Amino acid sequence: MRYLSQGSAFTSNIAYNVYELSVLQTILNENRVSTVKAMEAINLPCSDLLVRCRFEYQIQPCMELFEQSISYLGICCTFNGQNNFKFEWSSFTVHTGGLSLIVKPTHNFEYSTTYSRDVKLLIHKSVSYPSDLNVMKILSQQSESTIRIYSDVTRCSNEVKSLTFAERDCILPSEKTLRYFPRYAENNCNVECRIIQTIELCGCLPYNYFVTSSAPHPICNFTKIDCLVSNYLEIHESQMQQNGMCKCPPDCNAVSFDASMTKIPFTLSNFSVDNLYEGLDESQYVIAHISFGKQVYKELRRDLLINVIILASGLGGIYSLFIGMGVLTFFEIFYFLTFRLRAHYVRIRREHQVLCLKSRKIIVKEYKPKKLA
Length: 373
Description:
Order of helices and strands: HHHEEHEEEEEEHHHHHHEEEHH
Main location: membrane
InterPro entries: ENaC
Largest sheet: 7 strands, mixed
Structural class: alpha+beta
Family: Belongs to the amiloride-sensitive sodium channel (TC 1.A.6) family.
Radius of gyration: 38 Å
Number of helices: 12
Low-confidence stretches: none
GO cellular component, one term: plasma membrane
Distance between the termini: 165 Å
Mean pLDDT: 77
Strand content: 15-25%
Organism: Pseudolycoriella hygida
């Protein structure tokens, strides 16, 4: 059983024992147990981790609200990972709604990678892979935390969409496809760079990055942990971006999150008459209340600052300021110096030709002979 503690090296750069990894992989091979099945077996299932859940002031079964998923930390419990909730936005506020959780970490933390039994909370978009690039909060044991989420939405105008990628410096979802993710997102692109780098260095895909069943590469077994730990910094740090190996432009239309958290210690004597705390027999719990901090969000707009029309208007203002004339005045002067002057010249020339023709006319007078006396 203690050999299974080496599995934590899949998601970190902790020390490992090569002999124990070899023995563990041999045991798994003889019992025909895959790496994914082994990691699922040693991880705490969501049904045991989540004690009680309340959504919009209604106690609901936690497994109807959460589902098991994969993150960079391993197996996690995800809320609202799929678009199958019909939110009542008017009641989804700090005071009248939100999500409340009571979490009970495992008692057996002898082989834990940390010295505590805290719970990590990741906040991310449903289409993005949960990674260390997302907002993360630590929920401490024997405390009650209130997390308020704030979102910013960035949109781009049609004028910006009509520009080329080099001109707008952001990317549309239809302009780039990813190999391991169905939809482009800046975070997914960065994770895919890590996946590609891991495959190039170790020849396999870590189980916590197995995001699609169509991946042609095998999943790393426990004997590959040696390679994963040795190249951990090269895979996870910013060296790929510095070397130009990973180019992940930002999304033109994006959603970003931020969160604030307040927490207080609690004991059983501090519990209220709220039915959320009913039946709790000890204080070794993690309690969290998660909701949006505001009913509104900040929207940022990517728009075109200057085009031909705006440039002409701006130049007109500059001309008016420095030389005392606007663009319309400039075009009027140009018109009079070209078209009007030419028309005036043609008219004078025609009048001159008419005068010349009149001067050349022969005037004929009637001649009458004189009578002889």
